[in-house]
């Protein structure tokens, strides 16, 4: 066996009849005919078919998901994936697999039980690669625009998004919480770095069992000094479009594995996204869909789905009723009933992928709003300090990584957009 193993994708791009190659990976499929044994091997880069004579003892013995090294000469074969197969001369079994528990037609719940094994499926491998590209695109987007990466603490003494969804952690003799958002700390960071971003785990004890909610997810957040609502919404649109462009550049093969319509992703990457207000959104729901939503009520699943359908590309919705918004979202001085905030809604039922706002600079108002929601203000004193020493207008938002990945991949549940999902009911393995 030669010591140089090629990634399968590279071996296939050689596309040269008779060229000797060696690859290593895992047995993806095996089919035995009278005189031949076909073995499809996968590695992280792709799959290739190898054919051995039935007399080959190793080929006969090898099982699905065994790890193997094999070598032979490339041979053109239209029926093989990639157009070439390996005419195998040597097969070495590295780790012989027991009968693999995952076959065809298994339930979603079973696949979650054996997630540690299902991860290696072509389906999840494609999603994980797209997720990798999305995160890379986010870093590139912000760094190329002069933002600094700023890491938040994960253990926090306070809530950012309401006490109801906090996870408690015993912290020596104290109680702390897992972070719900880096935002409050980011608002301190901008006084040093002005424009910052991060990609970090986020925790919410969400009782919702929807296909769009996890209790541990990754949020990609940004915060910028001197920035107001009209500008921050444009940053969010540019970010989403640049993620889509990067996926189109790097992940066409993966989109194909997932059966995703590339034309649709091209449309999302190309077309401009509109900005409308909450009040205008209610008007669309009423006129087009005959849905009467009382002004002041939050948009629910159905409403967001219909708005996504109406626009066909992501849409930004601003100026939600202040009463239903977090304490840090400021009132619009021109219309105090509404807050200077926004959500971005994705089409195809993926709903809210981004949430953000300008930040209030009025500490007294924020204290008042927190108290009204029944929260203490003592642990936020450091945060209110930020309003005392050179306060500036500033804004930021968070993008839900798994929702964006699920949308791009066209998968029905965010659980498949993360390696080991955590929800109320699902926390193993
Ligand atoms: O709208 P959210 O709650 O906003 C914040 O937390 C702000 N503090 C962010 C900021 O301004 N820096 O969450 C932001 C995004 C949502 O739009 C959604 O995409 C995602 O995070 N998200 C979730 N994703 C999966 N599971 C959950 N339970 C999620 N909750 C929010
Ligand atoms: Mg939100």
UniProtKB/TrEMBL annotation:
InterPro entries linked: Aa-tRNA-synt_II, aa-tRNA-synth_II, aa-tRNA-synth_II/BPL/LPL, Asn-tRNA-ligase, Asp/Asn-tRNA-synth_IIb, NA-bd_OB-fold, NA-bd_OB_tRNA
Assigned EC number: 6.1.1.22
Any GO MF annotation of the entry: nucleic acid binding
Family: Belongs to the class-II aminoacyl-tRNA synthetase family.
Domain Aminoacyl-transfer RNA synthetases class-II family profile: 128-429
GO BP term, pick one: asparaginyl-tRNA aminoacylation
A Pfam family of this chain: tRNA_anti-codon
Name of the protein in question: Asparagine--tRNA ligase
Highest taxon in the source lineage: Archaea
Keyword vocabulary terms for this entry: Aminoacyl-tRNA synthetase, ATP-binding, Ligase, Nucleotide-binding, Protein biosynthesis
